[in-house]
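About this split. The held-out portion is used to measure sequence recovery: a designer receives only the structure tokens and must propose an amino acid at every position. Recovery is the fraction of positions where the proposal matches the reference. Here is one held-out target exactly as it appears in the evaluation file.
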């Protein structure tokens, strides 16, 4: 059975709720690492530039520390798996500068990837409106998209091409990168402040909305849909806190779940906070799971 996903945690810091939809870390007799490697390797390295609509609007997230997570003792909305063990500097994570796409990857952008690479695609993946976030994508699918985009942009002029030629890469954000981008320099519960606002994000609803539909002038870096719309894959395996960047280089042969952030269109306000942690089997393919891309130093 595939494990998809938790909205919070138990007192032990492990997922409290999972929905099972199929498989273990072995798929068709192959280990997960082999499956992921095969999916990514199947995407050809191409030199052509992607269509303009497929190029992300990258936003710079400056370097510096921020406080990650939340404490159920002081915030009744927090889940237990957001809490750090008591220690000096509790929750402080230093994140180098990086860039994050302003919007989630859309159906149209993913369609450009499928067209260019002839990658197999689930029937549901491209069924949504072109400007809505793409869904029904697995974690390996998201990484394959990143590989294609990096290759396609490597010779482009401007900042993105310059960074790629200097050794940066296009990938999924880590859990810490995602949370810093959503929160900015403070511990706000939502990207815009401490209280939920239905005019700032798509949650408690019935389906996805076009990316960027909700203006958020209060958001720290001008990113859209960091709360709600769809859960977003990250490059971090699920681990109890404290967060350790070295954990992001997990052994893919282990029974890892992968962190998702942001909540989705049908979630209640508690589950679209900036510190809420979800997790899923990397093979999960659901109507409420999508992703956005990051440009990061190696």
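Reference sequence for scoring:
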């Amino acid at each position: 059975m595939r494990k998809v996903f938790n909205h919070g945690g138990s007192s032990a810091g492990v997922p409290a709720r999972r929905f099972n939809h199929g498989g273990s870390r072995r798929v068709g007799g192959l280990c997960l690492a082999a499956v992921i490697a095969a999916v990514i390797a199947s995407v050809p390295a191409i030199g052509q530039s992607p269509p303009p609509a497929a190029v992300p609007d990258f936003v710079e997230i400056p370097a510096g520390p921020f406080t990650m997570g939340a404490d159920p003792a002081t915030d009744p909305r927090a889940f237990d798996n957001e809490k750090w063990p008591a220690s000096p500097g509790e929750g402080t994570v230093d994140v180098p500068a990086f860039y994050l796409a302003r919007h989630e990857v859309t159906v149209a952008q993913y369609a450009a990837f499928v067209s260019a690479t002839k990658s197999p695609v689930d029937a549901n993946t491209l069924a949504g409106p072109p400007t809505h976030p793409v869904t029904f994508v697995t974690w390996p699918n998201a990484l394959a998209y990143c590989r294609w985009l990096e290759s396609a942009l490597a010779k482009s002029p401007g900042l993105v091409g310059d960074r790629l030629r200097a050794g940066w890469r296009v990938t999924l954000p880590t859990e810490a990168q995602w949370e810093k981008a959503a929160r900015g320099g403070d511990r706000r519960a939502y990207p815009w402040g401490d209280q939920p606002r239905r005019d700032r994000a798509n949650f408690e609803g019935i389906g996805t909305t076009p990316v960027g539909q909700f203006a958020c002038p209060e958001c720290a870096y001008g990113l859209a849909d960091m709360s709600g719309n769809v859960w977003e894959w990250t490059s971090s395996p699920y681990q109890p806190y404290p967060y350790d960047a070295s954990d992001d280089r997990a052994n893919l042969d282990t029974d890892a779940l992968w962190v998702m952030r942001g909540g989705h269109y049908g979630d209640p306000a508690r589950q679209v906070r900036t510190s809420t942690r979800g997790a899923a089997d990397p093979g999960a393919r659901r109507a409420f799971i999508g992703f956005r891309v990051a440009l990061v130093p190696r």
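Annotator remark: Residues 3-24+58-296 form a domain with the paralog of FGE (formylglycine-generating enzyme) fold (CATH 3.90.1580.10).
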